[in-house]
Write a structure and sequence with these properties.
The protein is built from 9 helices and no strands. Helix 7 runs antiparallel to helix 8. By secondary structure, the protein is mainly alpha-helical. The protein has one domain. The protein starts with a helix and ends with a helix. Keywords: Signal.
């Protein structure tokens, strides 16, 4: 199942590469939301169990990809975020390789994205970037021991931001 989700996520990334400019609505945004929530719970569970770095890196990457896959649909639902989300979407491939410090500087502090008009844009960005911060933290751990306190905090924040996004989607 894990391998299937990762392959599906990677296929989504490669399939969307040429259509960045034109968002296409997803067939079932509820299933995409369920994938994100399931991966989020799995990441938190692994963090509680002091999971090993490769597994945590894999799960946090899959979580970020699950959110990335929803951006085209979210651009349609929240046109006030279109330019902001397009920038986030276009920069995703390169952001996966950034260090924790680079991610914090470019995405958390807003240097890599245009200004946004609506708070929902921020929540979508946080639900996408926080799993990447976890991935970077795991990848940068020298001994294989991961700072699970920081990673868990990021995972809980990502889940909270995602829940806000889902509440706004329900209202539309």
């Amino acid at each position: 199942m894990k391998l299937f989700l990762l392959v599906l996520a990677l296929l989504t990334i490669s399939a969307c590469g040429d259509s960045v400019g034109e968002p296409q609505p997803t067939a079932d945004s509820n299933s995409a939301a369920q994938v994100y929530l399931g991966m989020s719970e799995r990441l938190l569970s692994e963090l509680r169990l002091q999971g090993r770095a490769p597994k945590l890196e894999h799960i946090s990457t899959a979580l970020a990809v699950a959110m990335y896959a929803q951006i085209p649909d979210l651009r349609l639902r929240f046109p006030e975020c279109d330019a902001y989300l397009q920038s986030l979407y276009q920069g995703f491939d390169s952001s996966v390789q950034l260090t924790h410090a680079e991610l914090s500087e470019q995405y958390r502090n807003g240097d890599a994205l245009p200004n946004f008009e609506a708070p929902i844009c921020y929540h979508i960005k946080e639900a996408t970037v926080l799993p990447l911060l976890i991935r970077a933290t795991v990848r940068e751990s020298q001994t294989g021991a991961v700072n699970t306190v920081s990673a868990r905090r990021h995972a809980l924040k990502a889940q909270a931001h995602f829940n806000i996004v889902q509440q706004q989607v329900q209202r539309k």
